[in-house]
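Example record for the data management plan.
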Amino acid sequence: MTFAIRSLIRRGATGGVALTAVGALAAAGRAPVAMAESPNTATFTSPATFVAVTRKMINAEVTTSGSPAPVLTQTGKPAWLHFTLGSARSPGTAHLSGNPPAGVIGAVSFTVSATNGSGTPTDQVVTLDILGFTTTNGGSFTIGQPGSFTVAVPNSLSGVSMSAPVIPPHLAGLAFVDNGDGTGTLSGTPVAGDKSSPLRVRASLGGRTVSQTFRIAIG
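Corresponding structural encoding:
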């Protein structure tokens, strides 16, 4: 059997080596030995950043690759966030869930470590970009006088777009502009007939949106 395997290797018949060896072992009444899978270092396959909305449930999945399947641990997560390891059917994963309480907005980060005994553990800083407005009060304008009112989200959030889809008819002299920096501004000169009205503003990031209504006073 040894001679046959070496002969096949010299001829480059790689596929025949395993078949010849298994056949020879079977003929000799010995069970073939399973080849051990080469270990692969743990690698994160999920994004490092997830977008969430304040006071709304988070559902996100941390995933990895590697052989054997990595074991995940975390350090530094907030108390309201649950870190649940995947089942035997989905090893090397962890489910993130939780409801950011009122007032929790901006970037929230913690560290996830993945280890599978091959190489050093791999760390990834996971960041939750939590959408919410830092502006709490409304704005005020005077008829016939130019003015402005700016709303904002935390400056730790990048790429947020702002909009006011509907300008109330009693704010005809005003217009809303996205400043491209996580802020939006309502500005202009109120005209005769304009009255105090609510203005609904939206902030959007990564397919998630948060809305808030601000009272615009016209005097």
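Summary line stored alongside the record: The chain has three domains: 1-35, 40-131, 139-218.
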